[in-house]
């Protein structure tokens, strides 16, 4: 992040009332600064390039360029900028597109204010933020593919167990940081957990990682 205390946020949503409400909600937080607001995905990419926020709060279904495509561009071009999806949609296709695009988290617009604000802070630090129903859908999705972790997912979790950041894991494994996040989210779903520490603990309990 660009500072030790303040999270700089860009809000992207095509509904003016929703956008205004989000800006108002975040602005009252002493450690959050809204640096811009835009109404479509292409504008979100352009504003992210210009403003370099810590986090883009991204709607999924917007004109010109949708949220998943905008997320993919931002993650690819601006590695220091995180994206937290905030949407009314929770279909499997929507969720997986956002995760595969490199979104750090996926929250629904009916998320309680406290959870949303905590999600913004956490996502800006690179922590995954998932609404419970979204986490459940990811679990169902990967269960359809089988419960076993892939070799790459185990390698990523091993990096987490060594205390490495997503960026450091990516460098070690020669993969993009966004790809690391995707592997982590899939591993979380397979292990039925919602944070890095619990994922490592459960993986060790199941013998997937060596105990310290």
From TrEMBL:
Chain ranges of the Response regulatory domain: 8-124
UniProt keyword annotation of Nucleotide-binding present: no
InterPro entries in UniProt: CheY-like_superfamily, NreC/VraR/RcsB-like_REC, Sig_transdc_resp-reg_C-effctor, Sig_transdc_resp-reg_receiver, Tscrpt_reg_LuxR_C, WalR-like
Domain HTH luxR-type: 142-207
Modified residues (4-aspartylphosphate): 59
Record's protein name: DNA-binding response regulator
Gene Ontology biological-process entries: phosphorelay signal transduction system; regulation of DNA-templated transcription
SUPFAM superfamilies on file: C-terminal effector domain of the bipartite response regulators, CheY-like
GO MF annotation terms: DNA binding
Signal peptide extent: none
PROSITE patterns for this protein: HTH_LUXR_1, HTH_LUXR_2, RESPONSE_REGULATORY
Keywords annotated in UniProt: DNA-binding, Phosphoprotein, Transcription, Transcription regulation
